[in-house]
Amino acid sequence: MPIGTAEHDVRGVLMLARATGAPLFDGDESGPLLGFAGQAALAMELAERRRESEQIVLLKERDRIARDLHDLAIQRLLATGMTLQGALRFIDHPEAADRVLRAIDDLDETARTIRATIFGLRIREAGPAAKGLRARVVEVVERAAAVLGQSSRVSWQPSQDANFQTARVGSPSSPTSQLPYREQGL
């Protein structure tokens, strides 16, 4: 007995069996089976709708987190970095100035990491079909790093020309590769 609804094709099969040599099922016996198959199809449909609803709630929460991270955390990091840059002119000691410059660089790197995390949340939201070049490069690099037993890091350096980007792939303990990207491809 097929299990399905008018909206969807067959989702499964419900089967009754008797021992070899037993009489076949008659209409009176198989009638309730039709009702049960309909109820099973409805239960499967409701479970799918519930999963979809939970997925929508999760995606909305991720979007809210991404907005909050961008609006609050990144803006504060950038403002703190700019404040430190402005304070550099008042620092006469070279070691202190170097420390402040490193702190500014760390703040910039933290902002980039948060942006990459936000980007990752949005890629997962959109699904695998919407993966762009950056997501595919990150995926390939992560797989290669796992196979090679190396750590990896992908950073994107935007250029003056909006149609050109360079993906720099590597880490301090591994070789660095540059993949120039234009609209025409790598």
How would you describe this protein?
- The protein has 186 residues and is α+β, with helices and mostly antiparallel strands.
- The chain has two domains: 2-130; 133-186, no CATH class.
- Helix content is 59%, strand content 14%.
- The strands form two sheets. It has a three-stranded antiparallel β-sheet, covered by helices on one side. It has a two-stranded antiparallel sheet with strand order 1-2.
- The model is unreliable at 158-175 (pLDDT under 50).
Mean pLDDT: 76
Shape: elongated
The side-by-side strand order for the widest beta sheet comes to 3-4-5
Number of E-state strands: 5
Beta-strand portion reads 5-15%
What is Rg? 28 Å
Task: Figure out the total of helices.
Answer: 3
User: Unreliable segments (pLDDT under 50, ≥5 consecutive)?
Assistant: 158-175
Largest sheet: 3 strands, antiparallel
Give helix and strand order, one letter per element, not per position. Answer: EEHHHEEE
Q: What is the domain total for the residues? A: 2
By secondary-structure content and strand pairing, the structural class works out as alpha+beta
Q: What is the distance, rounded to the nearest whole angstrom, between the alpha carbons of the first and last residues?
A: 53 Å
Q: Percent range for helical residues?
A: 55-70%
Topology:
Blueprint (H helix, E strand, L loop, with lengths): L1 E2 L8 E2 L13 H61 L6 H33 L6 H16 L5 E5 L5 E8 L2 E9 L4
Antiparallel strand pairs: 1-2, 3-4, 4-5
Overview in brief:
The protein is of the alpha+beta class and 186 residues long.
